[in-house]
Structures are given as structure tokens and as C-alpha cells.
User: What shape does this take?
Amino acid sequence: MLHVKSFAFNPFSENTYIIYNDEKEAFLIDPGNMPEAETENLHNFIKTNELNIQNILLTHAHIDHIIGLQWAYDTFKVPVLIHPDEVEILERATFTAKNYGFFFPAFKGEIQHIKEKDQLSLGADVLEIYDVPGHSPGSVAFYNADHKFVISGDALFMMSIGRTDLYKGNYEQLISSIKNKLLTLPEDTKVYSGHGEPTSIGFEKEHNSFLK
Assistant: This one.
């Protein structure tokens, strides 16, 4: 059985996720924890539930999704999994942070590359990787068919889509990613987005004006 726990972190209200099974194996996705209180909240959940973080996964590397990345890597000492096309975005984080008025040191740690058709396992459960570029060049989504959910990052939101005016964003590419990848999933698939409340594939097909 897989469980999904979400946290809304930092001034951008970014959703950080923990996916874990009954054997206490877990993935930490997009650690955006910023002040000490958020980090303590995240760490306490992991410790209280005795979770063993297997990997840190990134849907993409925009600054709001990686504010807590160095802490997570230093704490759990596991590789960070990222699409190769997103590494440049991660490397630009220090520059990007300056634009938002704060200092962010360059990430130092082990990175491993992931891409579409790769599969990540937590025991008997599998996450399939979908390439969904457009919001950023190496955005990915993590899909579990058995439990009918997808972690979409900032590709798809409830009745909205990710912005494409940031560095290497591409509107046409994003719409193609959503229509040709995410909307092909079963309509009852729950969508856990990078910001905001969960939605479903069927709801977005019917109500998302960006996808008409």
C-alpha cells in the first residue's frame, strides 16, 4: 500500500510530497522546506513514521521546489534523481534566488539521471516516469497505476497549467506534454500538483480551459 503525504512550504506555497509504503520505504519529492519550522515539521513526520528515505526525487528544479534540497541530501544521504535536461536549471538556482532577493548556495551532492520509461520501485510498488517538459525543459511526472495517482509537478494544476515565461519555458511544449502524456492516464487518476489542491485527470479534461 502506498501513502502520499503533502506539505505546503515556503512563500510560494510549494507542495512537497512524501510517498511511502507500509514497510516504511519512502521517496521525498521536491523538498521546498525553507524556515526552520517547516524543516522541523517535515523531519518530524519522517522520524515519527520511521520512514527510510530511498531517494530524493525532483519533478523539476525551480527554486521553490529545491529550497530544502541541500538539507534533505545532507540529512538522508541518498542520491537526488533528476532529468538530465533539468540539471542546468538546478545549476542556475543561485542566480535565480538573487532575483527573488535571497541567497541560495549551489547544491553539492550526488545526482542521478532519470528519464521517461524509467521505473522507480518502493518494494512491490512502481512509479513510472513521464517526460512533461514545457514549464521547464526537464520536467517529469511520477505515476503509479495501481493506486491511481500522478505527481505532476508544475505541469498541471486544478483548472490551470504551469507558467511558461520562465527560463526555457515553452507554452506549446507544455500543452503537448499535458495532452499527450498526462491526459492519456485514466480519468480517475488523482493529480498531486506542485501548488494548490489535488485534482483528477477527468476533472481537468472537463473543466480546464487551457486544454480545450
Notes: The mean pLDDT is 97. Residues 20 and 26 are 4 Å apart (CA to CA). The chain has six helices and 14 strands. The two ends are 35 Å apart (CA to CA).
